[in-house]
Amino acid sequence: MKTGSFLSHCVIAAIAIAGTSLAAAQTQKDVHRDAATRNTLGDPFMTQYARAFYCNLPDDNNGIVIQSRSWNNTTGANNNQYRIPMTQIFDDVWTVGNHYVTQYMIKMPDGIVQVDSGNSATEFSTFNYPALQALGLSAAYPLKAIFLTHGHGDHDGGAQWALDNLGARSYLGSADNTLGAAGGKSYKPTFIDSTNLSMRTMSIGGKTFWILPTPGHTPGSTSAVLEATDHGKTVRVLINGGQSMTNSIPEVAQYLDSIERVYAMASALNVDGVMTPHIYWDGEGFYDDQIGATGRTNPSQNVYGHETVMRMTAVARECSAAWLTALDTTKVLPVWRVNRVELMPASPSPNLLVKVSAKVYSGWGPVVNQPVAFSIDGQACTAVTNASGVATCGKPLTGVGTAPKVISASYAGAESNDFIDLPSDATQTITCANQVPRTAGGAPGTCN
Amino acid sequence: MLSRSNPRNALLLVVCGFLLGPANGATPPTLDTSQPGNTIVTLPVGDGDKPSAVAIALPATSLRLTSSKLVSKRDLEFRRADEQWRSFRLTFLMYKPDAGHRPAAVAVISSFHVGKKEHIWLQRISRGRSGAQAADIHIAALEHLYGLALAQNPHAEFCLNGYGHTCTAPASDYPHPRLLREIAEARERAIVSANATSIAVPWRNVTMTSQPKGASGDRVGVRVTDHGVPLEGATVFFNRAPHSGCHAKSSSDGIVTCDLVDQHGDEDSHEGQEHVPILATFPGDVQADRILLPTTLTWYLSP
Questions:
Q1: What is the separation of C-alpha B75 from the centre of its chain, rounded to a whole number of angstroms?
Q2: Side-chain half-sphere of A438: how many Cα atoms within 13 Å?
Q3: Would you identify the CATH topology of the domain A71-304?
Q4: Are strands A435-436 and A446-447 parallel, antiparallel or unpaired?
């Protein structure tokens, strides 16, 4: 794939641009661009993809998105390197498309549910239809429904073909019905109420989607979370309803609000995976290629991990805040700071008092003088972080035996006019190979 | 995140036949104190879309407004709350005196549609206070209102009700830049009236006028002036739905031009684009001794 070296150049260019701008007095835009960078915590993959693409406009680096357009190959002719063949990303989910935009097919017991419908009828009939057939499409095993992230042509272009030829109805945010079609979409979608911004569940073709209207990219953009099975385990994956901002203050303000609500949804549902149609945006395309070349890992490459999904969303939030404050320089927005809690190595001491330490830090350094709530083998304990961001707590182990003991540390976050420190937590399991409790006479117990 | 409270909480009373006095449009409707928690909102619900006063219950929940460099006294706490009343989307600007006191509405933004066109009315809610603090609150409310007005749909038609202005009917509404200018002028009057010129940073209106269509169908441009004088070095952002945009800085004659580029990369053609309005946004310029106000301009490219 040619995209790697191109992206590297773009990232270097973006960092150079960022460095130049930040040398001057920091505007609100630059404060938030800097925050987006810091929130990656130095993660090179997130820097190359999410940080670069979500910040394309405030970085004045839209070339990376324009370049991505050239990957939107809908025919496959002479450009096979841009097509992504049908690729299994979870036990029950496959993707097909190109390096610009893909569609997802979810196998259900009684049929298939698809996310997005591709660029056009031709693309659907040439690539999606054979993929569906390979998954067992038949009269008895139909394409039951299509969830459309929004009403732009690269997402709903195949919806009419799917309706006409497979009888599959599409679901679309109601506010996108007249997008590019004054009289309404010809494929007569079932509407998701875009005016109700609350998260709710919805059955689409028998598949449960947690849906969240997220206007901003388009008025009817809809994000979602759904459950997939990965090597026998249930994972929850995030479908981002629409990336890319405009130059309109109210639209960017909506986009920012939507990302903040996506963050809340992903946090509440403990999302740990991604399934976004524009796969170049968060790096899924890289992993699709990797799966094609060397196979799916366990867990799947699309399981980014909860902490990473949240951090990536916070990066997107900061990029959006940067762009909004570029369009309105009078606006002042608090910076979202991602925090990480790391449990330090813990081992039960001879008297079975377990001392646990946790370090809390962000891209701005250690988090100082903040409470950390521990749970040690079911017992609560709170300590305050020191100048190095480390909090330490001790509790005696209860019970006897070698059963694993769960230890967790949680930072609840904090708020000021300038910052919103995001909550974070970590969990670890410890075991004693041989545990002897403290005796009634006071003799110390042992744990080794 | 905003919580949209239940619309069923909204309507308590429609005050029929209450029309704004045409001879004294500067007088805003006063609060019906017999209905605690109610705010009188002027909406075009009378015969022929004439404005009538409607008593609406304030939403129970509100959110603190984010900071703005437009606001002179940032220690005054203002909040916003959104409400849906019938087909009207209402945003209340509220002042919260201190802990233990409920926020009270000082202005309301009402959005509604006439046909396919969105109309947005901004209205002062008089609380009948006087004194230095009341003047501070009045000025800060106008400063917050400017920020809220800037974030409204710039393609809508607007009207400012109160602050010396009267809304007579949606047909008389006007474009976004005029609304912003009227709010700025109302703030200026409030500052002079309160003799608060020493605490408030002067605001200056910037004017943008569209430039003739260029040879390229995607070339857009405006001339930026500050009180008639060309403004050099001003960044202007251009937008055309669905997501084409560009930005550039003005030259010494105040003219900014650039070529719209599809920022997403999936706009198939420009067919019919002359029917899509162009939006130009001047993002403002904040200095210690003056603020050049952010503003917008919308227009259609002539074929």
A1: 22
A2: 13
A3: Metallo-beta-lactamase; Chain A (3.60.15)
A4: antiparallel
User: In the CATH scheme, what is the code of domain A338-447?
Assistant: 2.60.40.10
Strand pairing category for B117-124 and B157-161: parallel
Residues of B in contact with A331 (CB under 8 A): 66, 68-69, 147
Domain limits for position B209? 203-299
Cβ atoms A34, A23 nearer than 8 A: no
**Contact present, B208 and B223 (Cβ < 8 Å):** yes
Among chain B residues, CA nearest to A69: B265
Confidence (pLDDT) at A432: 66
Closest residue in B to A327 (Cα) is B283
Q: Is A152 on the interface with B (CB under 8 A)?
A: yes
* Average pLDDT score over residue span A44-51: 98
CB atoms within 10 A of CB B131: 9
State the pLDDT at residue A440: 59
Instruction: Give the integer Cα–Cα distance in Å for A109 and A119.
Output: 28
Average pLDDT of A242-250? Answer: 93
Q: What is the pLDDT of residues A248-272, one digit of tens each?
A: 999 999 999 999 999 999 999 999 9
- On whether the CB atoms of residues B237 and A252 are closer than 8 A, the answer is no
Which uninterrupted H or E stretch holds A22? Answer: helix A3-23
Tell me the per-residue pLDDT of A125-142, one tens digit each, with 9 for 90 and over: 999 999 999 999 999 999
Chain B contact for A49 (CB, 8 A cutoff): no
Distance CA A251, CA A402 (A): 57
pLDDT tens by residue, B58-96 = 898 999 898 899 999 888 999 999 999 999 999 999 999
Same domain, residue pair B209 and B187: no
Quote the longest CA-to-CA distance of chain A. Answer: 85
**Would you call A249 and B69 a contact, using CB atoms and an 8 Å cutoff?**
no
pLDDT digits (tens, 9 = 90+) for A354-396: 778 999 999 999 999 999 999 887 889 999 999 999 999 877 6
**Contact: A260, B1; criterion CB under 8 Å:** yes
A261 to chain B nearest CA, in Å? 7
Chain centroid offset of residue B260 CA = 26
pTM: 0.89
